Amino acid sequence: MSGPRSRIRLAMVVLAATGLVTLGAVAAWTVAMAQHQHTPSMQGMEKPDWLVKLAPAARTEAIQRQLRGFETTMVEVAYRYTEMYWGGMDGNWEYAAHMHEELGKALALGLERRPVYRKSAEQLFLKGAFVQVGEAIQKKDAALFKERIETLRASCSACHVAEKHAFIKIAVPTVRHNPIEKP
Ligand code: HEC
Known about the structure:
It is a single chain. This protein is mostly helical. It has 2 domains: 1-39; 64-162, Four Helix Bundle (Hemerythrin (Met), subunit A). The chain is built from 8 helices and no strands. Helix 5 (93-113) packs antiparallel against helix 7 (129-139), helix 6 runs antiparallel to helix 8 (142-162) and helix 7 (129-139) runs antiparallel to helix 8 (142-162). The radius of gyration is 30 Å and the shape is flat. The site of heme C (HEC) has 20 residues, from helix 4, helix 6 and helix 8.
């Protein structure tokens, strides 16, 4: 009568022991992995030190060089212009407003690096078409937004003409950058 019971008890003890061993193995493995990650050889590459290696006097200039100029500003401006456009077309006004604001920031930072473009930027863009497209976004007015996009892209191109890049004529975007759901 006690035979099956004791076999069950034995099975339970074996199971519990196996569990403990497994737990121990997992713990050991976790510790090993953690230690492993901290060894420099696991990083697969040297710590980048090109900037640190330069003479202190050369570092500021190197940083300036790496920050680049107006061409990288313009890559961001064009990206945000495109996404702002799709935000407005989708009626995703908060997304459009976000892109509008960040476009303004990108341009302001670019002008800090390249103040030579400030006059054209303010006269041809920042004080006119840029503010106006922002108003259309705040009003959530699709028809007005489309009109103001036309004025905006003309302003982008006008500045390119003024700054000897007349070959960069800005069109209405045709392709989306981001996989954004419509609201
Ligand atoms: C200050 C006037 C000014 C305004 C305003 C302006 N741009 Fe530019 N843009 C430039 C200049 C200058 C360059 C060339 C920069 C260089 O090569 O250093 C340029 C270059 C570009 C380029 C080429 C970037 C590359 O890959 O080299 C694109 C794209 C561009 N602009 C898009 C736009 C769009 C879109 C707008 C409006 C939303 C705009 N720009 C507004 C002055 C302006």
